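Hi everyone, sorry if this is the wrong subforum. Our group has a chain we'd like a structural model of before ordering constructs, and none of us has done structure prediction before. Sequence below.
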Amino acid sequence: MQSNDFNDAIASMPLIVSLRGIQENEVNDIGKVLIDSGITVLEVTVRTKNAALSPIDDNAIRSLNKLIEAHGKNVHVLAGYRFY
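Answer:
Right subforum, don't worry. Here is the predicted structure as tokens:
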């Protein structure tokens, strides 16, 4: 989707689905189900223990990239950040 369509996407479906702990092999199927259900904004949460000292969750980054490759033309894909 074009970045300037984000406001329209939120206006038509005021819901962002946050995918926490999604595995790389699940992204295509889950993304398709959500898109087919009318969801227009998906977010993959990237976790880290400490932003300054811990590496970012590599699985989340791979999942995020795969989601963008598979469905980025149909929905807005966001990256969220969570400390634990």
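For your construct planning: The radius of gyration is 13 Å. The chain has one domain: 3-83.
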